[in-house]
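To close the chapter, one final illustration. This time we ask the reader to focus less on the individual chains and more on the assembly as a whole: which components sit near each other, and how the overall shape emerges from the parts.
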Amino acid sequence: MKLICSKSNLLYGVNTVSKAVPTRTTMAILECILIDASSNEIKLTANDMELGIETVIDGTIEENGIIALDAKIFSDIVRKLPDNDVVIETDDSFKTTITCEKAKFNIVGKSGEDFSYIPYIERKEPITMSQFTLKEVIRQTIFSISDNDNNKLMTGELFEINENQLKVVSLDGHRVSIRNIQLNSSYDYKKVVVPGKTLQEISKIIPGTTDENVDIFLTGNHIVFEFNRTTVVSRLIEGEYLRIEQMLSSDYETKIKINKRELLSCIDRATLLVKEGDKKPIIMNVTEGNMELKIQSFIGSMNEDIDIEKEGKDILIGFNPKFFIDALRVIDDEEVTLYMVNPKAPCFIKDDQGSYIYLILPVNFNNVAN
Amino acid sequence: MKLICSKSNLLYGVNTVSKAVPTRTTMAILECILIDASSNEIKLTANDMELGIETVIDGTIEENGIIALDAKIFSDIVRKLPDNDVVIETDDSFKTTITCEKAKFNIVGKSGEDFSYIPYIERKEPITMSQFTLKEVIRQTIFSISDNDNNKLMTGELFEINENQLKVVSLDGHRVSIRNIQLNSSYDYKKVVVPGKTLQEISKIIPGTTDENVDIFLTGNHIVFEFNRTTVVSRLIEGEYLRIEQMLSSDYETKIKINKRELLSCIDRATLLVKEGDKKPIIMNVTEGNMELKIQSFIGSMNEDIDIEKEGKDILIGFNPKFFIDALRVIDDEEVTLYMVNPKAPCFIKDDQGSYIYLILPVNFNNVAN
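The assembled structure is written out below.
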């Protein structure tokens, strides 16, 4: 194999597919990036068997062939090359020479034949949205997936398509994040659970512009994302996602309008008194026109008042401050509305248009301590 | 005690003195920042018994007093306060209230009486240089101090003043870095060894402008740096610094002029084939008009040619690539000159004005392997 392409194209391709290289694996071939120049295009592929990424880069093929190169070493080399044309040449024993200007690297690759290509998925009826929208909706929900594998479904996100609505849901047993997106066309009803890791990697590699789209294809077992000249194929998580409808009652006893930035900075300040692993709640004491936030730990105590608009009953309620911070950080509104029922029922942060709902379970706290 | 000062002043002061708070200590009081408002100024102090930093900040004292507050907690709180006036108030039992706008923190401090003040050093005849110069000379030499305590002197830097010349030297047994600075006045001959840690912290807290100075005072056991309203006092390292004069022979067999950026990028590229802890040398094969750089490791091999101007003999010589990278990074010249004698004698990188000398010992390498 012999091919020539610019360092910047090569680097873009390597950075894109590298996201699918497993950090730990017993199969050495999976630690490689496959360079496939066997036909008339240069295709880079990486695959950890759950998630596969493939991208086509511009360049000249002087001799067809394929080679698998250790992803870490190859990407280190590419990154450090001068900004000029790169020549990659291999021989029958997989010895690979990477030349750029006067720099010449020799490494040994592996046979491309041993590589596991990403599965071929038939693509029909793409669901289309802007790269920006997809990236945003991931950012706005990904923080509340579960990080432990006890319930595999909770490590993914529900993508539910109903006509021209996309609903994305994540939950970890203490909180639920829901975003509703308006699509430009209507589609058949579909419901899949996408692994959190896939979404995290996707949101790193899509440029996220508003004027370029990503096409999404769903099959029984796989989801495919296509954008620019990159294809991402991921397995889906099998099983029935948790029913959230019954949690989403619209009854409330207390409705609070509050400045988002003030609430966020206050909770952020309060958490510095809480050491990692120490489960001190932040306590909200909601009265007419005022929310007093209090936290107390063995380091000290903190309290602060924030002006609010309140409807309904006064309430004294405690939360894990991190859950509030996570949700408030991804809401762009200047003012947010909280809905509460009682100190043991979940609090909702939601807007009037129904574009987002963040549900946070309260925690018990010892009243005497305050 | 009760005092009022702006969050930004307080934060600047806290960040400055925090550099002298020990990370590990058995004396809890040393983990504190002392706020001393016992006279007519607000003074913050931290002291790890080797290095002490004191700074005066603007503010209003409403009630005189002193208090010692846990440095980590106090600086976390200050950092997260809104950008407004901060009120710090303490009572007889060292309970401390920190209030800013509507946020109110309560923490418990310690008696300021238990705090170890920084030693009083008589200041006469300051050595004066711009903050920029001091910061630069530290950056240009600090990387070659020794990081192990076997030879305490090598963990510091020699500051030698001879008339209007300041010479700064650091060495670790494999290399020597020397910088010569022209001072604006002449001073009595002095020679001290300053702990590396002191210099690292100093270079973090001096703003480093060219139009503001730092005054340096030397005594038998201490060095004092004074700038803006901050005083840094450090112990010196006792003992006789290694004599470097005999190493600095000016004989050479090979003289090489080379583009610094090209050499640095090439060595930087080469090192990606070397894993941490793996002692693979970079080999320079110097011939007429050309330097070939080669490196070989179990990952692969790399070679690259660089145009040079050469005087004298050809030479094949190997070096620890890190030592070359460290030295080249802090040289601002576009072109550098290397002086070599033979493959077992040190290489010098130095300029004609004598403002810097970097001496690097070569390493043995197996000729056959190349």
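Chain A touches chain B through 27 residues (CB under 8 Å). The CA atoms of residues 132 and 209 of chain A lie 5 Å apart. With these observations in hand, you are ready for the problems at the end of the chapter.
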